[in-house]
Design a protein that fits this description.
By secondary structure, the chain is mainly α. Helix 1 runs antiparallel to helix 2, helix 3 packs across helix 9 and helix 8 crosses helix 9.
Length: 410
């Protein structure tokens, strides 16, 4: 409801051009957005596998259709089931049930105390059944039909003085065989859905019945198997409805046009359930485990929001989007940087030939070094001077010789 109001306010703002962000003081636009997000966060969705649903509906799959319809609807009103069981336990007059402030489906179940007490004693199972019907009503109805076909194929689901089994169009219907009384079947889900061993004695006791219970105006719902839904019949129709109609006292408490829209309590999906307690209901599929039921935030948009989820679940639920977004935003720039650096590495590889060319220049340096001996030869050029210096003494001696010759001549 809060989410719907918030959306309507946003639409009004858009049509009138009014911008709530321009108002002074606290930001009303942010408050409106926060209220919308809070409304969205208060809903959950629970998803069961087909095997889990088979085990879940196995204890009631063989109930007569009008009683099964009321049980499915009443399972969404878990708190009222507990209150009704307490009230019925302390009041022996069923005539006062109609005046109680419970949903019409809970009032209907309250007329059959054994069913009411069973739902009260298995509160986790009842809550899970209600959650499954809110989010997976079609799957629940299909699971019931699977189990009925199994029991029928095994020869354990047949017409008796207490019930009429009708197989038509691939669907198995179970309706009251008597116009005034309805019987609640008692059976073991671990046995009734499986075929008997060859040669075994027909097990008449696989499905037993207690005393007949009165059919009243409170059985105002039935199962539409083709449409996979529970519907309000208002005591108009044929079959078992036509047979019992003359024996039912019609009152506006149960026959009312307001029930044409079938009411369920969608906030049951927000209730905390210890799903491990469902592991005991494994009569059909032995290896099915409920420890990891897929329960996540954000159910269908049309769901009515109820109580806020437990803090433990809320904290876990708030971390998942953050954990998912953080690596995504960090990884993208890293990838881009990595792509940008690759051309630089290639350019570095292209520079390598220049380095090789530089190495080729080295021989020129070596040739230059080889020229150095020429310089040394040039330095040798003064050698004649040294020879001249050596000749100087010879000249002196020659002079001495000349001087001696002159003296001799003298």
């Amino acid at each position: 409801m809060r989410k719907t109001l918030a959306i309507l306010l946003v639409i009004c703002f858009c049509i009138t051009g009014f911008d709530p962000l321009l108002l002074p003081g606290p930001n009303p636009g942010a408050s409106l957005l926060a209220a919308t997000e809070q409304a969205e966060d208060t809903s959950y969705a629970v998803q069961f596998t087909p095997e889990q649903l088979d085990n879940l509906v196995a204890p009631i799959a063989l109930y007569p259709d009008p009683l099964l319809a009321q049980v499915l609807l009443a399972s969404t009103f878990v708190d009222q089931i507990s209150d009704a069981a307490q009230w019925v336990g302390s009041n022996n007059d069923p005539n006062y049930i109609d005046s109680q402030p419970w949903d019409v489906s809970v009032k209907a179940v309250a007329h059959y105390p054994s069913v009411l007490y069973m739902m009260r004693d298995r509160i986790d199972w009842t809550t899970s059944l209600g959650q499954a019907y809110v989010d997976q009503s079609t799957d629940v109805m299909l699971a019931v039909q699977r189990l009925r076909r199994m029991a029928r194929s095994a020869g354990n689901l047949v017409t008796t003085p207490q019930q009429q089994v009708i197989y038509e169009g691939g669907y198995v219907q179970i309706v009251p065989a008597q116009p005034r009384y309805i019987y609640v079947p008692v059976y073991d889900p671990g046995v009734v859905y499986y075929r008997r061993a060859p040669g075994a004695i027909v097990a008449v006791g696989l499905i037993s019945f207690g005393a007949g219970l009165l059919i009243g105006a409170w059985l105002n719902h039935d199962c539409d198997w083709r449409g996979h839904r529970v519907f309000y019949h208002g005591w108009v129709g044929g079959g078992w409805i036509g047979r019992s109609r003359t024996n039912v006292h019609i009152t506006n408490i149960y026959v009312n046009n307001n029930y044409r829209n079938v009411h369920i309590n969608r906030t049951v999906v927000n209730r905390n359930v210890d799903y491990k307690n469902l592991n005991r209901y494994n009569g059909v599929h032995r290896n099915v485990d409920y420890s990891h039921v897929n329960r996540h935030a954000g159910g269908p948009p049309s769901r009515t929001h109820g109580n806020a989820p437990p803090p433990r679940v809320e904290s876990n639920r708030g971390r998942e989007p953050m954990t998912h977004r953080t690596p995504t935003t960090q990884s993208r720039p890293q990838t881009q940087v990595h792509k940008e650096t690759r051309p630089q590495v290639q350019e570095h590889k292209q520079v390598r030939p220049q380095v090789q060319e530089h190495k080729q220049v080295k021989p020129q340096v070596q040739e230059h070094k080889q020229i150095r001996p020429k310089t040394e030869q040039r330095k040798v050029t003064p050698v004649p001077k040294q020879s001249h210096k050596q000749e100087a003494p010879k000249t002196q001696e020659h002079k001495k010789g000349e001087s001696k010759s002159e003296k001799r001549n003298q």
